[in-house]
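Technical annex B. To support the medicinal chemistry partners, we prepared a structural model of the target in complex with uridine-5'-diphosphate, based solely on the information shown next.
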Amino acid sequence: MDSVKILGVPFSTMTLPDTVKLIQDKLAVERSSSRPFHLITANPEIVMAAMQQPELRQIVEAADLITPDGIGVVLAAKWQGAHIPERVTGYDMLIRLLEGASSRGFSLYVVGADEETNAKAAAIIKDKYPGVDIVGRHNGYFKGEQEAALVADIERKQPDLLIVALGAPNAEKWIYKHKSRLKAKVAFGVGGSLDVIAG
Ligand code: UDP
C-alpha cells in the first residue's frame, strides 16, 4: 500500500471511499488472523506525541494502516512535495461503514464514552442501521476487574468490528495492549464519535 512518511509515520494515500472499501473487505472475509487489523486515524497531535513517547511510537509502527486524520497531515505531505488526497477520520470511517451495512452487514462492539452516551449511541446505530448487529457495548470508564471482563467479553463475542472511543491516543494504546485477545477482524479508535452520534 502506498504511503507518505511524515516525521517517520507512514500515512496511507488512499481516499476515504477506497479506505472504506478496504475495511469492508476486511470485515467480510473469514476470520483468518488471531488479532484485529488495527487502523489508526492519526492527527498531527499523535504524530508529535509518537516522536516523544517510545511507547506510542511502537504502537504506531505496529498499526496495519494509518490514515490522515486532520488537514495538518494533508498539508504536511504537500509541503514535502508528496500527495495525500484527503482526510480520513475515525468519524467518517465509522459513518460510511455503518451506511454500507445495508448491503454488507457486520457485527459491532462499541466501547467508550460515558454510560448514557454509549447506550444512546448504540441504540441509535441499532435503529438507523439495521444491517449492523451490535453484539456488545461498554462505557469507557472501567478499571481492574471490569476491564478484564470487558476484554473477555469481546474475546467471546468475536465482533467483526470493534470501535473504541476513549480519546486519542488512549484508544490506540488500549487496542494495542489487548490486541492478542480482541478477537475482532478490525479495530479502530473513534475519538468523540459516540458523543456526536448520541447528539
Ligand atoms: N472517554 C472515555 N474514557 C476515558 C476518557 C475519555 O470513554 O477515560 C471518552 C469520552 O467520554 C469521549 C471520548 O472518549 O466520548 C473522546 O474523548 P475526547 O473528546 O477527550 O477525545 P479526542 O476527541 O481528543 O480523541
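Notes passed to the chemistry partners:
Residues 5 and 108 are 31 Å apart (CA to CA).
The chain has one domain: 3-189.
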